[in-house]
Amino acid sequence: MATITALPTEVLLEVFELLDIESLTNAKTVCKQFRAVIRMIPLRSYTLRIDEPKHSMWKFTRFLLSDPKAGSQITDLTVEWCRREPDDPDTWTDKWEWTEKDLGIMKGLEETVIDKYLTPETYVAIKGGVNSEALLPLILCFTENLGSLDLGDVGGGVPTIILPHIPSEQFRTWFHLNTGYPGNYLPGLSRLKKFNHHLNGDALVAEYKWGWRADYFLPILFIPGIEEITIGGCATDEEVDGYTLKTIMGWYEEQFKGVPPSTVRKLVIRDARMYEKDYELIADYTCCLEKLHISYNDTFTELESYYDMADAIYVFFENNPKLRMDNLYVDGRPNEVWLKIFHDRDYDLLRGEDEYRERTYEEFVEEFEAWSQRRTLQDGAK
């Protein structure tokens, strides 16, 4: 009887494609032939399940450690949050135990990967084997061809057992602390086209300025070639240390010095707790927007009136020639609301020409449409 190693490559591929990540990792250690065949298996998309009881994320990381080149095949990553529930034993996850071989491989990656892209605290959490969320930045070191990253809907609660294994900074994940910045992004973010990340709405509570702190959003905005960004639950706080996007830009002045405007074409900001000036700063750093969707948390909004938001929307229009009113969705309000505010504010679309002429609302709408079309044509002629 022929052994399995005598089977044609096509048959071996069919067999190996039925195996899970752990089995594939083990099969790669059998012989060079198996390792070569397994590398032929297309791995275009993958779902990472954080805290999943069967340790799937830990096993996937071991798979990448044994064959780092496999990560370069992945173009689409999705994250599911399966946090432990104290009252549900079915969700409990045992501590992961790294083998000496695993630790040896990571040791060999310290100089070229780990020390370059990860914080020391992240590395400690990875070796701790408790909070698999810490693995995400490491995994992103191997996925340099990633085009889409969906970080999912992150809940606000954290099980007590993993508290020693999460960032000490409030409202952060390990991803936030290791994202990087222009010129030094995690490799898996360097070619990203589409990014999605939310904070579960139940974390936006009471009088506290809860939400993901907005400083993690800025590096994402400036990823070279990024086209779509969807974020939820971003927050700033003028009352505490003047925590605004402008302040944050000042903190990281060197990292963002000379950075070109964002290439994002579609921007969705949901359940945000930011101020008018924050939106205006985002608008100042965009130039390619074609679609803009904004919703803010009505219970905890930092905007005093529709007029605040209208001023920011106008800046978006000024800086993004391809943004049209029919591709604008703000707080579920009809676009007529914003046009009326533009008219009430008497925005000078003609830049000083006939500046003092009083215009009816209907005349202003016609002028606005002509202005939008003119900007689009001028942009197309560049």
UniProtKB/TrEMBL annotation:
Domain of life: Eukaryota
Residue span(s) of domain F-box: 1-50
UniProt xrefs under Gene3D superfamilies: 1.20.1280.50
Protein name, UniProt field: F-box domain-containing protein
Organism encoding this protein: Orbilia oligospora (Nematode-trapping fungus)
Biological classification of the source: Eukaryota, Fungi, Dikarya, Ascomycota, Pezizomycotina
